[in-house]
Amino acid sequence: MRIAINASILDDRPSGLGIYTLNVVNYLCQIVDKNDELIIYTSVPQYFTEQSNIKIKKIPEITQPKYGKQAAIYRFKWINTSLLKNLKGEKVDLLYSTTHHGPLFYKNQIITIHDLLPIHFNYKDSLQRILQTNYFKFILPRIIERAKKIITISDCTKSNIVKYFNVQEEKIVRIYNGYDRNLFFPRDDAKSYIYGKYGIEDYILAVGASYPHKNYDNLIKAITLTLDKNIKLIIAGGKDEYRNYLKKLTKELNLVDRVLFINYVPQEDLPYLYSAARCLVYPSLYEGFGLPPLEAMACGCPVITSNTSSLPEVVGDAGVMINPHSIEEIAKAIDMVLSNENLRKEMIEKGLKQAQKFSWRKTAEEIYKVIKEIGEKK
């Protein structure tokens, strides 16, 4: 079987969907049968290695997410023209897209829908967000209708798809995300490493201040209520627009000495940030999966997170669940974890155990199983 992989979402600084794509495709390359052939369409071919049954097709760089709305428009055009033409020329049996970006008029495809964020939160703060919302409302339903299978990353997102798009449950396969086990594990020298590089110590951590649904404004407000007035909040990563709003809020609340921002954290530093933190606080209003809590647990970092969307699926009984809308509840959870060392140890132990349920190899194996099942029915 000739299997094409649409990895057009991947760029040279992967995050979110890019991390998913990078890991899943690399593991598919490891496990693919010798009788099957993979054809990978990507603008960053350096991430993959050609083999006798693995072909890499270089696509235009403009498809990369870092080019914003221009990339979104070009990627849609490329998928529905150049990719379709190439699939026909390569006599592909099945197309697997690692995201919801699939061809509009193509039946032999499987897509992955990670979340329905543009539907839950109809942001109109930029042309790119408006385009994304319209894509989910008017284009994605037609792709779903024609696709052979839909892969999604949590039971929460699966139920959302069934409800919103009126899709039969049998058409959707839930396959959980994984995490990089070679990167995310407890680091004994984490505190000295983080202090040496970033000059910070004794902190709680928040990761990925990308959009308002991450709800870090409520977390910052909760810091004003915590009993420990010396503990610092480190907000790592994110996007400028929301992060600038959070910085302004921090100034208004006179928390500039307690709430610190690290604009960009290299992937290799993340496990040290997790390992050195007193806890991770992740009060998101909605997540299709939520990688930071999983990565934190794998690094032995206690997790406080929301009792909404997919987050209870990821964290299980290993974390402290909070109502993300309640500033007081967030503050009380922080106080409880920081003041009770026995609880912290129990959370660390349970978190390490919970994290072992997930791996990118397992994710890729389950996706490949779906691909093979569809291929056999053709």
Task: Give the topology.
Elements lengths: L1 E5 L10 H15 L5 E6 L11 E5 L9 H22 L4 E4 L11 E5 L3 H4 L6 H20 L2 E4 L2 H11 L6 E3 L15 H9 L4 E7 L6 H8 L8 E7 L1 H13 L6 E4 L7 H7 L3 E3 L8 H8 L4 E4 L4 H5 L4 E3 L4 H13 L1 H15 L4 H18 L1
Parallel strand pairs: 1-2, 1-4, 2-3, 4-5, 5-6, 6-7, 8-9, 9-10, 11-12, 12-13
Pfam family, one: Glyco_transf_4
GO molecular function: glycosyltransferase activity
Protein name: Glycosyl transferase, group 1
What can you see in these coordinates?
The chain has helices spanning 17-31, 68-89, 117-120, 127-146, 155-165, 190-198, 216-223, 240-252, 270-276, 291-298, 311-315, 327-339, 341-355, 360-377, and strands at 2-6, 37-42, 54-58, 94-97, 109-113, 149-152, 172-174, 203-209, 232-238, 259-262, 280-282, 303-306, 320-322. Helices cover 44% and strands 16% of the residues. Helix 10 links the parallel strand 11 and strand 12. It is globular, with a radius of gyration of 21 Å. The longest helix has 22 residues, at 68-89. The mean pLDDT is 94. It is of the alpha/beta class and 378 residues long. The protein is built from 14 helices and 13 strands. Helix 2 (68-89) runs parallel beside helix 4 (127-146) and helix 6 packs across helix 9 (270-276). It has two domains: 2-178 and 359-377, Rossmann fold (3-Layer(aba) Sandwich), CATH 3.40.50; 190-355, 3-Layer(aba) Sandwich (Rossmann fold), CATH 3.40.50.2000. It has a seven-stranded parallel beta sheet, with helices on both faces. The chain has a three-stranded parallel beta sheet with strand order 8-9-10, with helices on both faces. Residues 196-353 form the Glycosyl transferase family domain. It comes from Thermoanaerobacter pseudethanolicus (strain ATCC 33223 / 39E) (Clostridium thermohydrosulfuricum). This is Glycosyl transferase, group 1.
